[in-house]
What we know:
Helix content: 40-55%
Radius of gyration: 20 Å
Organism: Halolamina pelagica
Strand order of the largest sheet: 3-2-1-4-5
Number of domains: 2
Structural class: alpha/beta
Protein name: YprB ribonuclease H-like domain-containing protein
Order of helices and strands: HHHHEEEHEHEHHHH
Pfam families: RNase_H_2 (PF13482)
Number of strands: 5
GO molecular function: nucleic acid binding
Strand content: 5-15%
InterPro entries: RNaseH-like_sf (IPR012337), RNaseH_sf (IPR036397), YprB_RNase_H-like_dom (IPR038720)
Amino acid sequence: MSKQRTNIGIENSFIPVRGVGEATERRLWQDDITHWDDFHPGAVGRKTGERVESFIDEARPRLDAGDAAFFDQAFPSGERWRLYENFRESACFFDIETTGLDHDRNEVTTVSFHCDGETTTLVQGDDLTAENVRAEFDAADLLVTFNGKRFDVPFLETSLGLDVDTPHLDLMYTCKKLDLSGGLKPIEREIGIERDRPDISGRDAVRLWKEHERGEDGSLETLISYNREDAVNLRALADEATRRLDRRTFVDG
Length: 253
């Protein structure tokens, strides 16, 4: 390829266009059409070419405006990981701890957000409010979680009455594309992400909150540390998972 790019960004993608599947996109890349700037209608059929040009014309100002929601809707669900290359610096990596697994019966105890290199934790009974969570989300273009679509987001919506509509990259599904399955911590170990306290689990997080409610010193501090590490490690996991998908899709594919 004439352009030695190994990170797929939105502007390298043609797959949002109707009539362009993985095979067509890969053929365009192999023909050195690796960026919107490279595209010419003769590269595909007339109708598809018109659709690609129409998409690019609409997408350029949307990308310039940082409109992640537009691309969240435009990309097929299995390819939304490509948004990460463009929005990683304005992403919010977040993780919650709870009193159990049922969002209809259990409660959120802590929420940690890792955004722009800074980590913030909100605690039930102190500063964990719908307004504070919404402020964190509103400052981000992209939310990044692990199993957040099935767990973290429903918990927050039920517990705090939120409507979470920020574009959302759930790394559990991204990892599945790489045949990385299981929970967050086994996947971290498999790809070499280390933890300060690998001995603490989600079950321990429930126990630590109960100990905190009984007034045991240090329990809340340990819980917060654990929760914060979950959020921070999501950044490392997202970087590595998308790097591997970049390589597999753009270079090796």
